From TrEMBL:
Residues 1-72 form the F5/8 type C domain. SUPFAM superfamilies: Galactose-binding domain-like. This is F5/8 type C domain-containing protein. PROSITE patterns: FA58C_3. It comes from human gut metagenome. Residues 21-51 are annotated as: Disordered. InterPro entries: FA58C (IPR000421), Galactose-bd-like_sf (IPR008979). Residues 26-36 have a biased composition (Basic and acidic residues).
C-alpha cells in the first residue's frame, strides 16, 4: 500500500520498469521487471550490497513489500 497524497491509499507497483542501480554487476533490472523467475543477487564478494530504485518523483511511502526468493 502506498500513500501518494494524504489519505489516498493505492496498491500499485511504483518500481515497475524504473531504473535500478546496484552495488554489484549482476542483473539489477531484474528487480523491477515483475517476472517472478528473475532475481537480483549481489556478487559474493560484495561486502556492502545495495540496491536503489529511481522513482519518477518523490513519494511519501508508509508501507512497502519486498518479495524474497523462495516466497510465494
Amino acid at each position: 500500500m502506498f500513500l501518494l497524497e494524504k489519505g489516498q491509499n493505492i496498491d500499485i507497483d511504483l518500481a515497475y520498469s524504473q531504473p535500478v542501480t546496484v552495488s554489484s554487476s549482476k542483473d539489477g533490472e531484474n528487480v523491477t521487471d515483475r517476472d517472478a523467475n528473475t532475481t537480483w543477487t549481489p556478487d559474493a564478494d560484495d561486502e556492502n550490497p545495495s540496491l536503489t530504485i529511481g522513482l519518477d518523483r518523490e513519494y511519501n511511502i508508509e508501507n512497502f513489500s519486498v518479495d524474497f526468493e523462495g516466497e510465494a
